[in-house]
């Protein structure tokens, strides 16, 4: 029969008549199943070093020739006992794994100073009946607790001794107080420099709150009129309770402010910041829509979990994406000065909040850009980190400037539309233009006269070259002869030949070319 040793966190398996112990950390899975003969089987699979999900560690490398047990199956005729054994193994394994993971997380925590509890001279500032988020682990009923301000920090504790949280003043980065206006809770929130453990959870945000009215209301019975005296009295009681809770929280905050005003806390620069609801807007920072509210130094969302706390001094730029005509929503991408941090995205912000967000960004001196599409920021930040000098030489974040890119494209299009203009050409005066026009007119008239003369000669039957050749030959003959009669006779002869050639049509006309 399989035995479970809760104290030593081991399982005793009967093998060859002996009880062999196995630590629960060596077990990977445990299951039970039943066959048709009412036999129950318990199957236990162990973690074997060298498999894909179980690499070798320092202990297994010392004994490389060891043989490891991979799987064990036990048969039992009592199904109830088999199921009970499997449940005990799973419960013990879950407890051990939770303890080891908490131990590993605590090893990464930054060591904090010890809380100095207020003595008889200094009575601690106290605020009672509070709930805490994140909640303590365990399956028991959740209990309210008391928040106390001591000499150098806060302490929250419940009636259970193990449920206690200490928050040092030096570890507080931002403190917020948000009274209930349109919300169901009044809260005090601390955003820390370094992680702390709340139960078995590692967190940087701790919140203490009170519900100002019942979140769950009983529905049923007859409908009640709006003028029902009982209904009016109940609403009046809820308003009085909300005002009382807000006043109690405000009194606690004021007294803590007086404590932080002491000289030893001047260097911490601690102050409760209150969100400005009139500047808030709806968006989706994680998975669900929430109302995001700016403060004097942060952008926060403290109602829905996980909480959102963004320090404005750590922001490099803000890029408003999917901004354009016809868009009902747009997105906000927040780039931090530490480029190793992932870009924080707030999606699905209504376009009606765009102008208010721009005005708020201007008042906080945060540089913002607009783009029509969503950008993939991981490769962009990787490129910047690989070569920051080139990034600065190319203008830095100006590649996100949508207005500058539009003006450059318009300027290039205008330059391309203009005709070619030589750089060395200079405009002439009006008189020079008139003179050039008159000269061109005279030249055109002379050209027309010459063309008309050429056409008249060509129409006689011979070309211009042939007529010049005959005239030159005639001049030579006239110079050689001395008698006037011979010159006359040759002229008449030449004239007669020209007349005869024109009538016979032996010489073809030259085609006209304009």
UniProtKB/TrEMBL annotation:
<dbReference type="InterPro" id="IPR056595">
    <property type="entry name" value="Fact-SPT16_PH"/>
</dbReference>
<keyword id="KW-0539">Nucleus</keyword>
<comment type="subunit">
    <text>Component of the FACT complex, a stable heterodimer of SPT16 and SSRP.</text>
</comment>
<dbReference type="InterPro" id="IPR013953">
    <property type="entry name" value="FACT_SPT16_M"/>
</dbReference>
<feature type="compositionally biased region" description="Basic and acidic residues">
    <location>
        <begin position="459"/>
        <end position="479"/>
    </location>
</feature>
<keyword id="KW-0227">DNA damage</keyword>
<feature type="domain" description="Histone chaperone RTT106/FACT complex subunit SPT16-like middle">
    <location>
        <begin position="281"/>
        <end position="371"/>
    </location>
</feature>
<comment type="similarity">
    <text>Belongs to the peptidase M24 family. SPT16 subfamily.</text>
</comment>
<feature type="region of interest" description="Disordered">
    <location>
        <begin position="404"/>
        <end position="514"/>
    </location>
</feature>
<dbReference type="Pfam" id="PF24824">
    <property type="entry name" value="PH_SPT16"/>
</dbReference>
<comment type="function">
    <text>Component of the FACT complex, a general chromatin factor that acts to reorganize nucleosomes. The FACT complex is involved in multiple processes that require DNA as a template such as mRNA elongation, DNA replication and DNA repair. During transcription elongation the FACT complex acts as a histone chaperone that both destabilizes and restores nucleosomal structure.</text>
</comment>
<feature type="compositionally biased region" description="Acidic residues">
    <location>
        <begin position="405"/>
        <end position="458"/>
    </location>
</feature>
<keyword id="KW-0234">DNA repair</keyword>
<dbReference type="InterPro" id="IPR011993">
    <property type="entry name" value="PH-like_dom_sf"/>
</dbReference>
<keyword id="KW-0804">Transcription</keyword>
<dbReference type="InterPro" id="IPR040258">
    <property type="entry name" value="Spt16"/>
</dbReference>
<keyword id="KW-0235">DNA replication</keyword>
<keyword id="KW-0805">Transcription regulation</keyword>
<dbReference type="GO" id="GO:0006368">
    <property type="term" value="P:transcription elongation by RNA polymerase II"/>
</dbReference>
<feature type="domain" description="FACT complex subunit SPT16 middle">
    <location>
        <begin position="2"/>
        <end position="156"/>
    </location>
</feature>
<dbReference type="GO" id="GO:0006260">
    <property type="term" value="P:DNA replication"/>
</dbReference>
<dbReference type="InterPro" id="IPR048969">
    <property type="entry name" value="FACT_SPT16_C"/>
</dbReference>
<keyword id="KW-0175">Coiled coil</keyword>
<dbReference type="GO" id="GO:0006281">
    <property type="term" value="P:DNA repair"/>
</dbReference>
<dbReference type="GO" id="GO:0031491">
    <property type="term" value="F:nucleosome binding"/>
</dbReference>
<dbReference type="InterPro" id="IPR013719">
    <property type="entry name" value="RTT106/SPT16-like_middle_dom"/>
</dbReference>
<dbReference type="Pfam" id="PF08644">
    <property type="entry name" value="SPT16"/>
</dbReference>
<keyword id="KW-0158">Chromosome</keyword>
<protein>
    <recommendedName>
        <fullName>FACT complex subunit</fullName>
    </recommendedName>
</protein>
<dbReference type="Pfam" id="PF21091">
    <property type="entry name" value="SPT16_C"/>
</dbReference>
<dbReference type="Pfam" id="PF08512">
    <property type="entry name" value="Rttp106-like_middle"/>
</dbReference>
<dbReference type="GO" id="GO:0035101">
    <property type="term" value="C:FACT complex"/>
</dbReference>
């Amino acid at each position: 029969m399989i035995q479970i040793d809760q104290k030593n966190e081991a399982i005793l398996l009967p093998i060859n008549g002996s009880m062999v112990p196995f630590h629960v950390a060596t077990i990977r899975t445990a299951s039970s199943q039943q066959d048709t003969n009412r036999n129950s089987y318990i199957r236990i699979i162990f973690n074997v070093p060298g498999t894909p999900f179980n690499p070798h560690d320092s202990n297994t490398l010392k004994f490389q020739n060891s043989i490891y047990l991979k799987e064990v199956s036990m048969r039992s005729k009592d199904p109830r006992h088999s199921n009970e054994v499997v449940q005990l193994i799973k419960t013990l394994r879950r407890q051990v794994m939770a303890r080891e993971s908490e131990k590993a997380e605590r090893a990464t925590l930054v060591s904090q100073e010890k809380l100095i509890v207020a003595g008889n001279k200094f009575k601690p500032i106290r605020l009672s009946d509070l709930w805490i988020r994140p909640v303590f682990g365990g399956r028991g009923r959740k209990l309210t607790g008391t928040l106390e301000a001591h000499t150098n920090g806060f302490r929250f504790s419940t009636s259970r001794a193990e449920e206690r949280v200490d928050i040092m003043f030096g570890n507080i980065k931002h403190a917020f107080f948000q009274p209930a206006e349109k919300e169901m809770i009044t809260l005090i929130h601390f955003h820390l420099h370094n992680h702390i453990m709340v139960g078995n959870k590692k967190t940087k945000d701790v919140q203490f709150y009170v519900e100002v009215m019942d979140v769950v209301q009983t529905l049923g019975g007859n409908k009640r009129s709006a003028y029902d005296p009982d209904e009016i009295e109940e609403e009046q009681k809820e308003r009085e309770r909300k005002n009382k809770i807000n006043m109690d929280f405000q009194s606690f905050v004021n007294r803590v402010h007086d404590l932080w005003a002491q000289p030893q806390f001047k260097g911490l620069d601690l102050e409760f910041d209150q969100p400005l609801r009139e500047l808030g807007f709806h968006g989706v920072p994680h998975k669900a829509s929430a109302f995001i509210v700016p403060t004097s130094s942060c952008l926060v969302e403290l109602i829905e979990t996980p909480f959102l706390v963004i320090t404005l001094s750590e922001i490099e730029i803000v890029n408003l994406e999917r901004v354009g005509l016809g868009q009902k929503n747009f997105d906000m991408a927040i780039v931090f000065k530490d480029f190793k941090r992932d870009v924080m995205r707030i999606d699905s912000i209504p376009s009606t909040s765009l102008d208010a967000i721009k005005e708020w960004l201007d008042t906080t001196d945060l540089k913002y850009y607009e783009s029509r599409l969503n950008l993939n920021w991981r490769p962009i930040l990787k490129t910047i980190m690989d070569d920051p000098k080139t990034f600065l030489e190319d203008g830095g974040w100006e590649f996100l400037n949508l207005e500058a890119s539009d003006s450059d494209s318009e300027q290039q299009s205008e330059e391309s539309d203009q005709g070619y203009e030589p750089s060395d050409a200079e405009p002439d005066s009006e008189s020079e233009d008139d003179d050039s026009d008159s000269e061109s007119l005279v030249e055109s008239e002379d050209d027309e006269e010459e063309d008309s003369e050429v056409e008249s000669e060509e129409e006689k039957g011979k070309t211009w070259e042939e007529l010049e050749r005959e005239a030159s030959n005639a001049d030579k003959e006239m110079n050689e002869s001395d008698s006037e009669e011979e010159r006359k006779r040759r002229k008449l002869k030449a004239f007669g030949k020209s007349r005869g050639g024109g009538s016979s049509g032996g010489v073809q006309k030259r085609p006209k070319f304009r």
